[in-house]
Write a structure and sequence with these properties.
Elements: H1 14-30, E1 40-44, E2 50-54, E3 59-61, E4 66-72, H2 76-83, E5 86-93, E6 98-109, H3 113-120, H4 124-128, H5 158-162, E7 168-182, E8 189-196, E9 201-207
Bound molecules: flavin mononucleotide.
Residues 38, 51, 53-56, 69-72, 75-77, 136-137 line the site of flavin mononucleotide.
Length: 209
Amino acid sequence: MNQPDSLPEYYDDLTLSFEEAWGLITAGVTNRNSPSHMPVIGTVDALGVPQMRVMVLRNVSREERTLRFHTDSRSTKAAQLHHNAATSVLIYDAAAKVQIRISGKAEFSSQGDIADTAWLTSTPFARRCYMAEAAPGTPIAEPSSGLPTWIEGKQPDEAQLADYRENFAALLVKVETIEWLYLANAGHRRARWHWDTGQHAWAGCWLIP
Ligand SMILES: Cc1cc2nc3c(=O)[nH]c(=O)nc-3n(C[C@H](O)[C@H](O)[C@H](O)COP(=O)(O)O)c2cc1C
C-alpha cells in the first residue's frame, strides 16, 4: 500500500507556497545542480510560434522582480524579444515535485552597468562563446564552433575578449506572474500570483490543479 505523502508546511498555505516558489527559483543562481539553474525560456517568433530553449539563470532579484540571463545580442531570441517582449520561464524541480511557470517581459541590456558587470564577472571560457564571427544560427557549409580558429581550445584573455563585448547582452525578465503546481498523492496544489501594479504588491489565489 502506498504510504501517504509527508506533506510540507506550505501545502495548504498560499503565503508559504509563494516563499517556497521564490526559494526554488533563487536556488538556481548558486546551485548548479538545482533544476532552476537551467530553466526553459520561451519567446514568440514573428509568426506567433512559441520558441523555447535552455538558458543558465545568472541572477534573481526578488525586489526588482527580475531574472537575469546572458545571451548573444545577435541571437534569434534577441530579435524575437525586440519584436515581442513576452517571455516565459519554465522550471520543473522533480525532487521538490514542483512545476513553476513564470511569465514576464524581457528587457535587454547590452550597454551600461548591468551588462558591463555581467560581462566582467563571467569566466573567460563562458565569454568565449561571444567570439563567434557570425551570428548564432547562421547557416554554414561545414560543421564549426563558429569561433576564430586561433582561440579554439584556448582560454581568451581580457584583451582578446574586449573586441567581442558588443556581442554580449544581459537579458532581464521582469516577472509578472508566477504559477505553482505541487504534486502530491494527497491532492495536487496549484496557485498563481500576479504583480498588481496598482497595489504594488503580489496578489495570489489557489487554482484547481
Ligand atoms: C545546458 C544549456 C545551457 C545553455 N545556456 C545558454 C545561455 O545561458 N544563454 C544562451 O543564449 N544560450 C544558452 N544555451 C543555448 C540555447 O539553448 C540555444 O540553443 C541558443 O541560445 C540559441 O537560441 P536562439 O536561436 O533561440 O537564440 C544553452 C543550452 C544548453 C543545452
